[in-house]
Amino acid sequence: MESFAQKRIGVLTSGGDAQGMNAAVRAVVRTALHFGAGVYAVYEGYRGMVEGGDRIRPLSWDDVGSILHRGGTVIGTARSAEFRERVGRLRAARNLLQHGIDRLVVIGGDGSLTGADIFRREWPDLLAELAREGEIDPATAQAHPALMIAGLVGSIDNDMVGTDMTIGADSALLRIVEAIDAITSTAASHQRSFVVEVMGRHCGYLALMSAIAGGTDYVLIPESPPPEGWESQMCELLRHGRASGRRDSIVVIAEGATDQAGKPISADYVRQVLEDRLGEDTRVTILGHVQRGGTPSAFDRWMSTLLGYAAVEEVLSATADSEPQMIGIRYNRIDRAPLMECVQKTHSVAQKIAAKDYGGAMALRGGSFTEMFQVFKRMAESMPSVTPAQPRRLAIIHSGGLAPGMNPAVRAAVRLGLDRGHVLLGVRGGFQGLIDGRIEELKWGDVEGWASMGGAELGTNRQIPTLEQFYAVGRALETQRIDGLLVIGGWAAYKAIYELYRERERYPAFKIPMICLPTSIDNNLPGSELSVGADTALNVIVEALDRIKQSATASRRCFVVETMGRFCGYLALMSGLAGGAERVYLHEEGVTLKDLQADVESMIESFRGGRRLYLAIRSERANPHYTIDFLSRLFEEESHDCFDVRQVSLGHIQQGGNPSPFDRVLATRLATRCIDYLTHELEKQSAESAFIGLAEGKVTIFPLKQMADMVDWTYRRPKEQWWLGLRPMVRTMARLSVEVEKEGAERLCGKPILPDTSKAG
Ligand code: ADP
Questions:
Q1: Res. 756: pLDDT tops 70
Q2: Which atom of ligand 1 is closest in space to residue 16's alpha carbon?
Q3: Which ranges constitute the DSSP H helices of 41-85?
Q4: Residue 414, in any domain of the structure
Q5: Degrees (nearest 5) of the Cα angle 607, 611, 617?
Q6: Exposed/middle/buried for 240, CB within 10 Å: 0-12, 13-18, 19+?
Q7: Is residue 746 part of a domain?
């Protein structure tokens, strides 16, 4: 490994705080120490950098322990007027150089990142001035000719162009949707209307996604002001909704919403309109700072961990000529993009909104944002927008294990199917229900409230029709005159449809378009990097891990926790990353006696070195013999009373709970495309079948015949699993070397190194 011993990195959080910043800071610190570089926290953002002194302090491995689950930022954030001035930045440069820091990881919004770039560009001048004034000696100026920066976007608004998600946005959405769910139940009880205002001055992400996930009636976002006369249209929509079965009405409004003329629309104005025109008792809820609060979601923890890791790689490999990069997420992968290009594009969204170029603003937000805005509108209207000559009968059926998000998927499919002029049929009880004729028509109001519901209202089971049942399945499809089939489910659903597809020549009734929509907490389905339900399960596991960790009252304890997933280790690995596990056992990787011995040894060494808690996560079928019980007994036996061991099997709580906003939105997005697919195939008079998923972040439809090439039938998982590439990250974040733990900060940072003439760059 290249030696980075002379390289010193500063990390700061700046601007508004966001959940997940701590995970990023932790990852920056641990990755830097892992690579042998020194790492300093700049406390209170740029203010601390300008003030210097003990605002800039080295961080050790342990300093960032137990912060993953905390909201906000443990190293503080502040606004700094001084840093906006050159004289402030001059002092900041002086203070960084005192510690030999010439690499910065800045975690903040577009303001903070702009500030960082200005600072970087001025750096050589600032150093020259400091040298002239005798504040630093020329050798120091020579040794640090450039400031190398990497930007991570901490912003709950998800307002940065160039990354799919910003740190904190997923958690904020979780908070908002929890609030909308709570408001929905009280609104429904009293048949009331609510106007909910969420953050987003120039960005409608939180408003739009919470409107979709919360199943609300209307949304107002800055990028796409409502058309002229929107008040009447909104009231009409709400009236229709009520007539079709809704008991509550909710309008979500982004704080920066305006009308077409650019005039702000306030939550209070919307309330007034609803009261005046509908005679509804209407309340306003402004969510404000609760959106920033609370513990970060699982996604914000694992994503920020990856971002922090990549940011350190970036600043360590950067040279004086490197273009500064923003590290973000694109299609579930870490992605680098030129920092200032992203900031400028972000500013241009605001400029386009100000110039009333709303088409341009929406275009910069990207295709899926625009698509989801259209989907929301189609779902909210209870009137079909298409009246086909011949209405088609589309059936929806579940199969496979229960996954949170099945209900929102059905709701979206029903409403979007109705919007396309189809007749929608719900099959109760999986394939047996189909055979038994437990089928009913689903109307717009029948799926009301399903957006937020866990479980599966239509019922699901793991039954795959046997050869003997094929005839009965075919009969049922014919007698019910089913033209197309949407199967929302897990492994059993995919297997069943694949079998039906293979038997099409023998059973002509199977020659109808069919499509599978992936729902499985295990995330083990082909063609989709994420299946609906996995995010919810991950959040449940991470919340449980937080509690388990908190419960450790013993001075030294090892927890062995088992997650679901059968042969697929997704939940184990990702909860290990998000929950700060020291070790994860996966079937994909295998578990050997040699591994276990090494684990026991490093565990003992680490506890002897002062560790208090060790978390091991075992995926359900990691190994048939090295069970959770075996591992716990082994660790207990070998602990020699140095620590105690507890085992926790999380079990079925992982399938329960209301779906997370992410899963609701994903379910909606996929269901839309499934309905479009079936519609299209029927129009073409084709009887093709397919499965849908997110592949490299994009909704992709795969012909069913490809399935056999993509799955490992024995272990019931896809042959390619993208997340396996993240395994080394768990090791890096949990490095158990006592040497690093104890000596890390002192050895690598030590005393201030000014002046340092040893190395340039
Ligand atoms: P955010 O980073 O969330 O957009 P701000 O815009 O408030 O938040 O920026 C945070 C801090 O970043 C500011 O208080 C200031 O110190 C610094 N900063 C922002 N813009 C600039 C700029 N143009 N030049 C120098 N520093 C800036």
A1: no
A2: 3
A3: 45-51, 81-84
A4: yes
A5: 90
A6: middle
A7: yes
User: Do 443 and 398 share a structural domain?
Assistant: yes
Same domain membership, residue 632 and residue 740: yes
Question: Does residue 43 sit in the same domain as residue 148?
Answer: yes
Calculate ∠ Cα 164-166-168, nearest 5°: 135
The structure tokens listed for 595 are 């591994």
Distance between CA 76 and CA 246 in Å, rounded?
45
Confirm if 723 and 332 have CB atoms less than 8 A apart: no
- The dihedral formed by the CA atoms of 723, 724, 725 and 727, expressed in degrees to the nearest 10: 110
> Which atom of ligand 1 approaches the CA of 79 most closely?
14
* Domain, as residue range, for 273: 169-291
Digit-coded pLDDT (tens) for 661-710: 999 999 999 999 999 999 999 999 999 999 999 998 889 999 999 999 99
**What tens digit of pLDDT does each residue of 153-190 get?**
999 999 999 999 999 999 999 999 999 999 998 888 88
Is residue 746 domain-shared with residue 678, that is, in the same domain?
Answer: no
H-only helix segments in 152-297: 169-190, 205-214, 230-243, 267-278
Vertex 565, ends 560 and 571: CA angle to 5°? 65
Residue 670 buriedness (CB in 10 A; 0-12 / 13-18 / 19+):
buried
Q: Tell me how far the alpha carbon of residue 62 is from its chain's centroid.
A: 27
* DSSP tag of 323: P
* Residue 117 bears catalytic tag: no
Across the chain, which distance is largest between two alpha carbons, in Å? 91
Q: Which of 291, 307, 341 is the last residue of a domain?
A: 291
**Residue 749, domain CATH:** 3.40.50.460
Residues in contact with ligand 1 by the CB-under-6-Å rule are 14-16, 46, 79-80, 83-84, 108-112, 114-115, 118
Tokens standing for 49? 């950098």
SS3 694: strand
pLDDT over 80 (residue 51)? yes
Q: Within 10 A of 387 (CB to CB), how many other CB atoms are there?
A: 8
Best substitution site from 114, 159, 349 to test ligand 1's pocket, by max atoms within 8 Å of Cβ?
Answer: 114
- State the amino acid at position 622 in one-letter form: A
Closest residue by Cα to atom 6, ligand 1, is 111
Torsion 264-265-267-273 (CA) sign: positive
**Is residue 416 one of the residues assigned to a domain?**
yes
Taking CA atoms only, the protein residue closest to ligand 1 atom 26 is: 115
Tell whether pTM > 0.70: yes
Q: Which of 83, 123, 159 to mutate to test the pocket of ligand 1 (most atoms within 8 A of CB)?
A: 83
The verdict on 408 and 341 lying in the same domain is: no
Per DSSP, the three-state class of 693 is strand
Query: Does 598 share its domain with 705?
Result: no
The model's confidence at residue 630, banded by pLDDT at 50, 70 and 90, is very high
Which member of 157, 217, 300, 419 is catalytic? 157
Domain match, 74 and 113 both: yes
Distance CA 326, CA 261 (A): 34
In a shared domain, residues 492 and 558? no
Query: Beta 333-338 vs 325-330: how paired, if at all?
Result: antiparallel
The CATH number that applies at residue 420 is 3.40.50.450
